Amino acid sequence: MADGLRTVETPSPWMTAKQAATYLQVALGTLRNWTSAKYIPHAKRGRIVRYHQSEIDKWLARGGCAGRSSLADL
Fold it and tell me: Closest Cα to residue 54, out of 11, 13, 12?
């Protein structure tokens, strides 16, 4: 604590793939597939991929990804 000032750590709204998969309760591989297919909102800078919690929440509110159709759906 320098000069009597204290810094307060606030959690970042940006999540790693592992954090986002945990947040969504899906497998990490599933999240990576969704990211590759551009189903889920994400930001990519070089090889770094991050997911913003509020964008994920909006995406979920819109219904998320449509998923795959199966013979049972036809």
Answer: 13
Task: Output the tens digit of pLDDT for each of the chain's 74 residues.
Answer: 455 666 666 688 999 999 999 999 999 999 999 999 999 999 999 999 999 999 999 999 988 766 665 555 55
Structural domain of 50: 14-63
Q: Within a domain: residue 21?
A: yes
* pTM of the predicted model as reported, rounded to 2 decimal places: 0.72
| Cβ atoms < 10 Å from Cβ of 16 | 13
Q: Is residue 42 part of a domain?
A: yes
9's tokens: 């750590």
The domain total for the chain is 1
